[in-house]
Write a structure and sequence with these properties.
This protein has 186 residues and is mainly alpha-helical. It is built from 9 helices and no strands.
């Protein structure tokens, strides 16, 4: 992954990407009448699990379930088509399935995936971050130096950074770097 793609993943969706998702939503509404609400439930549940776990893979799984459901319905229609070959129902259903499979990738998954880190933490349509993520531990140490908190001990700061590491907010290497800087301050 190039640096530009990595930076884009943690940026808010632009208006074009937001419009794609809105268009996908509007184009999916007629399928509810034909196929029921199950594919939509897959996508909603994917969003719910992504927000809960801060893991974009739930969206990918939801899209795969969405696609699988469309293929299942198409196969069932093929089975019915074999009973009455004069009907063009299968050709129409197959065309609709292919169209929705393309739409879910191009108008839904691709825009979200290109901003996956942003979407994991923030809302799709938000432009402001919900939480501040320090991209560099050096900034975290600088904040400690600049703010001149009341009186803090190195031990208190080490405990705070240990908690960050235990909760997965920073890596082992980042923790070790901060620990060295804190211990060398005195």
């Amino acid at each position: 992954m190039c640096i530009k793609e990595k930076i884009l993943k943690n940026k808010p969706l632009n208006s074009n990407d937001q419009a794609k998702i809105l268009i996908f939503t509007l184009l999916t509404l007629p399928s509810v009448y034909i196929l029921g609400i199950i594919p939509i439930i897959f996508l909603i549940f994917g969003f719910f699990m992504m927000k809960k776990n801060k893991d974009f893979s739930h969206i990918k799984t939801a899209v795969n379930l969405f696609s699988g459901y469309y293929w299942l319905v198409t196969i069932l229609l093929l089975y019915n088509y074999l009973d009455s070959p004069s009907d063009y129902g299968f050709a129409i259903a197959f065309g609709i399935t292919i169209t929705y499979l393309i739409l879910v990738r191009v108008l839904f998954l691709d825009p979200l995936e290109s901003h996956s880190e942003w979407v994991e933490v923030n809302d799709i349509f938000s432009k402001n971050p919900k939480s501040v993520i320090l991209p560099n531990i050096e900034k975290g140490v600088e904040i400690l130096k600049i703010e001149k908190l009341k009186h803090y001990s190195v031990a208190d700061e080490l405990i705070k950074w240990t908690r960050l590491k235990e909760h997965g907010h920073i890596s082992e290497q980042e923790f070790n770097d901060v620990r060295k800087k804190l211990l060398n301050q005195n």
